[in-house]
Amino acid sequence: MYRIKTMNSIAPAGTNLFDRAKYSVSPDEENPDALLVRSAKLHDLRFGDRLLCIARSGVGTNNIPEARCTEAGIVVFNTPGANADAVKELVLCSLLLASRDILGGIDWVGTLKGRGDEIPALVEAEKNRFVGPELTGKTLGVIGLGAVGAKIANDAARLGMNVFGYDPYLSVDVAWGLRTNVKKASDYNEIYHSSDYITIHAPYIKDGKTPTHRLIRRESIAQMKDGVRIINLSRGEIVDDDDMLEALESGKAAKYVTDFPNGKLAGAKGVIAIPHLGASTPESEEKCAYMAAAQIIDYLENGNIVNSVNMPRVAIPRAGAEPRVCVMHRNIPDMIAKISGAVSARGINIENMVNAAVRGSDMAYTLLDVSRAVGGLREAVESIGGVMRVRVLA
Question: Which helix (H) or strand (E) element contains residue 26?
């Protein structure tokens, strides 16, 4: 019986996916095999020795100690694309809110309550206070062309915008799905120089080769067009709040739409602060929960890793009844040879095998479908230096 501990309220679309003949699912599970989480912070949580994986019902994993999980051989999943439609729709709304003073106009009309027949004339006299530019013909720069960014790029192109996109890790699948009139920028600077509007859909990376911490700051804003409108529904830390407020005060930036309000941004001039509504739709919550649960099940029962933020994608369809050996190990020389040697030394044939390493880490993962499982197989593989965790699945 697998134990699944829910760290938040999870939509039934996810929890109902678990077969109760094989899974016990509740917030009270002790020493669970998997955690299913939304926003609960896990950095100070002590992980039990049974814990194999954590699935985040959503995209951002800032609330999960990824490095600690990697060292412990715990797979961290997220659900990219499950909330893409919800976020995309809010970005399209944000483009309009950043262009025309719709919110200011609505608030102003609210002040006219009680003025009866005067209202139509007052509206005609004052409506010019709330004008703003059309989107058609303007240039949109999309930073990050993942599940959300690609949808926005395509829909903005359909609205008649000139669209540039930049993503240092653009996947082939996403590239095939982009409309032909979405142009690929060569770097961030081309986005900054060309765009009337910029929308950010990159993960928050504090350090490393391609950090996004304070990606939008004084130096990058200086390269942008005067009156640029910036939308950030990705992560608050990607934009330097002080530098953005300075740009709004000077007029360098016309509007800043963010889904991450704080004490500096709430009520500030030129800021439209949305209360973190990017994925707040019932449809998104259900899709994220379903996807997170499905990934847990596939990993626990089949050893497959899909959509992990700290482990490589490694998956083999279960074509037959062969046992499967799942090995989490260090990515060091001769490891594959030693694993396969431990298997063949017991007269077991390897029917299928796939291996992949974690980019930027010394961790790797190997799946082997074998002809049969014999006693001592798991222990033999575990005894290899550099092997961290072994499971044998029937």
Answer: strand 23-26
Report how far apart, in Å, the C-alpha atoms of 164 and of each of 171, 213, 362 are.
16, 22, 35
Clarify whether residues 385 and 366 are in a common domain.
yes
The domain boundary residue, chosen from 252, 273, 294: 273
Is there a contact between 238 and 201 (Cβ–Cβ < 8 Å)?
no
Instruction: Check whether residue 91 and residue 210 sit in a common domain.
Output: yes
Residues 316 and 48: their CA atoms lie apart, in Å, by 28
- Cα–Cα dist 32/20, whole Å: 15
Helix (H) or strand (E) holding 198: strand 197-200
Residues of the chain with pLDDT under 50: none
DSSP notation for 264-325: TTTT-TTEEE--S-TT-SHHHHHHHHHHHHHHHHHHHHH--B-SBSSS--B-----SS--EE
Residues 6+ apart with CB under 8 A from 211: 205
Q: Which long-range contacts (CB under 8 A, 24 or more apart) does 38-47 make?
A: 38/7, 38/8, 38/9, 38/10, 39/8, 39/63, 40/7, 40/8, 42/7, 47/72, 47/74
Q: Which of 222, 257, 273 is the last residue of a domain?
A: 273
Amino acid identity, position 251: G
Do residues 257 and 334 share a domain? no
Residue 294 structural domain? 1-83+280-310
Q: Does one domain contain both 216 and 320?
A: no
Cβ–Cβ < 8 Å for 257, 231: yes
Helical (H) or strand (E) element with 122: helix 119-126
Q: What is the 3-state secondary structure (H, E, C) of 126-155?
A: HHHHHCCCCCCCCEEEEECCCHHHHHHHHH
Residue 319: the pLDDT is 77
- What's residue 382's pLDDT? 95
With tokens 């000139």, the residue in question is 162
286-299: per-residue pLDDT in tens? 999 999 999 999 99
Contact 198, 192 (CB under 8 A): yes
Say if strands 53-56 and 34-37 run parallel, antiparallel, or are unpaired: parallel
Q: Same structural domain for residues 214 and 135?
A: yes
Q: What is the CA radius of gyration of the chain?
A: 25
Domain harbouring 37, CATH code: 3.40.50.720
- Full-model pTM: 0.82
Instruction: Report the alpha-carbon distance of residue 97 to residue 239 in Å, rounded.
Output: 19
